[in-house]
Amino acid sequence: PFLSLACRAVRRPLSCPSCRPVDIMVAQIWEVVGGADKGGIIVREGVDLKSPQTSERLATGAVVRELSLVGDRLEFERVEGAGPAKGWVSVSLKDKVLCQRRPAEGAAGEAPAWRPAARGSRMPRVVCL
């Protein structure tokens, strides 16, 4: 199925010399698991923790699509649940997890066949077709 431009490019290791790099677009989906005691988690308009806060929180249990990830800050677009349609949230706060990645869709509870590059890694990955 066609995935939106909000998806991240995931690249796999090159397995043969005749292959060329190809981007595979995979939507990274997250679920809000924190903030149950406060009615959800704080959403901000920008990546900076001092940027303006939105008028409503992103509800616990809401499902969002990752637009970008900068450190522990997630830019999202809401897929289901209550809260702002888009914004920035922290995925963790001190020792608490606020947002948790969901397995790739269609995996029927299995982990995705790929593993994303380590945080901060600039090493490209490619796939063999």
What does this structure look like?
There is one protein chain. Helices cover 0% and strands 29% of the residues. The chain has 129 residues and is mostly beta strands. A hairpin with a 5-residue loop joins β5 (73-80) and β6. The model is unreliable at 1-14 and 110-117 (pLDDT under 50).
Give the topology, please.
Elements: E1 8-10, E2 24-26, E3 29-32, E4 63-70, E5 73-80, E6 86-90, E7 92-93, E8 96-97, E9 99-101
Antiparallel strand pairs: 1-2, 3-4, 3-9, 4-5, 5-6, 7-8
Defining traits:
129 residues; mainly beta; five-stranded antiparallel β-sheet; two-stranded antiparallel ribbon; 9 strands; 0% helix; disordered N terminus
Short description:
The chain has 129 residues and is an all-beta fold.
What's the overall average pLDDT, rounded? 76
Helix content: under 10%
Rounded to the nearest angstrom, the radius of gyration is 16 Å
Strands, total number: 9
Strand residue percentage: 25-35%
Structural class: mainly beta
Strand order of the largest sheet: 6-5-4-3-9
Main sheet specs = 5 strands, antiparallel
Q: What is the helix/strand order?
A: EEEEEEEEE
The number of distinct helices, counting runs of at least 4 residues, comes to 0
Q: Which outline best applies? A: globular
